[in-house]
Write a structure and sequence with these properties.
Layout (H helix, E strand, L loop, with lengths): L9 E4 L2 E4 L8 E6 L17 H18 L3 E6 L3 H14 L4 E4 L3 H14 L5 E6 L6 H10 L4 E5 L8 H12 L8 E5 L8 H15 L3 E3 L1 H6 L2 H25 L4 E6 L3 H23 L1 E2 L6 H5 L1 H10 L4 E2 L1
Parallel strand pairs: 3-4, 3-10, 4-5, 5-6, 6-7, 7-8, 8-9, 9-10, 11-12
Antiparallel strand pairs: 1-2
Helix pairs in contact: 1-9, 2-3, 5-6, 8-9
């Protein structure tokens, strides 16, 4: 269940390792900023936003990432290339974390990506994303390659076959059009709602089994779309549900997680770290392997337990 025969690819995005066997590296949390109704930035989309509060939030995210061992980055939502430029400049001035730009319209996204290339920060930029709805995937790939883009998200989904197998088929179609030529390819298996998140997780397993690529999803999409949860259980109930879904999803064949608004990092990161700790011991129980990354949450938070486990248990591998 937690070991793939297929060699698992590990990529490096701005110093963050992503991918590998389950439990080998903690999952990358990709939070959003400047989205509509963002309680942190309060942007008017014209360059006016709460810079001091946003700086505080970025620092807070860095601190919770360091404390838990769960790496983080931000995808900034912008409507136009000029707006994206403002956010990119601000972000690069205030944090060393990698970043992405979240823009739905492909042409606008391409123009914002040109600015990333102009700045020469491709090493820490994650292009999000190449999708099955793009009209000219091969042309988009060529344009990105010409700009020196190294790290891309491929979104896998088939409108006609919304099963896990449909997501695998969609991915393979996109890869065949040149999307497999980047230094880093990670796969978003398209969460549509909370209960169908399981289909994305199964797709993660299938893709890792066959292609060895890092997989994940926007698990917050499913939780935040469940509006009735707040009505039934209140805000505390929603927060509990969100933490469980994101933690559990991150532990099931997921190498990254579009985890929702950056302001939620103080509760989402500990939830994911806790799930990753359980994943580490699940992997150890099944395979006898405890991976040696010093950033693993179990190594950060339970070093004494881990030392006793490795010294006194019948299984003592560290890899």
């Amino acid at each position: 269940m937690f070991r793939f025969e297929k060699e698992q690819k590990i990529f490096n995005i701005g110093g963050i390792r992503i991918g590998g066997q389950p439990g080998e590296n903690p999952p990358l949390m990709i939070a959003s900023l400047f989205h509509n109704k963002d309680s942190v930035t309060k942007t008017d989309r014209k360059g006016n936003f709460d810079r001091e509060r946003t700086k505080e939030m970025l620092k807070q995210m860095e601190q919770i990432s360091s404390a838990t061992g769960v790496p983080g980055m931000v995808a900034m939502v912008a409507n136009t290339p000029d707006e994206a430029k403002l956010y990119i400049d601000f972000y690069l001035e205030n944090t060393s974390m990698p970043f992405g730009i979240d823009m739905w319209v492909a042409d606008q996204r391409a123009k914002a990506t040109e600015y990333v290339s102009k700045l020469g920060v491709q090493d820490k930029f994650l292009y999000n994303s190449i999708t099955p709805w793009d009209k000219d995937i091969s042309g988009q790939v060529k344009r990105l390659k010409d700009l020196g883009i190294k790290h891309v998200v491929v979104q896998a989904f088939d409108d006609q076959d919304q099963s896990p197998a449909g997501r695998l088929k969609s991915l393979e179609s996109i890869l065949a059009q040149g999307a497999d030529s980047f230094d880093t390819v990670i796969v978003d298996t398209s969460v549509m709602n909370m209960p169908s998140t399981s289909f994305s997780l199964v797709a993660n397993r299938m893709i890792k089994e066959k292609h060895g690529l890092p997989c994940g999803g926007a698990y917050s999409n499913g939780t935040h779309m469940w509006k009735e949860c707040k009505e039934a259980w209140g805000l505390d109930g929603f927060k509990a549900m969100d933490a469980v879904v994101q933690g559990m999803s991150s532990a099931l064949w997921s190498d990254f997680n579009f985890c929702g608004p950056a302001v939620t990092a103080p509760r989402v990161f500990p939830a994911v770290a806790s799930a990753n700790i359980l994943l580490s011991t699940l992997v150890y129980a099944e395979t006898g392997v405890m991976f040696d990354s010093p950033e693993l949450p179990i190594r950060k938070m339970f070093p004494d337990f881990l030392n006793k486990l490795l010294e006194g248990g019948s299984r003592k591998k560290s890899k």
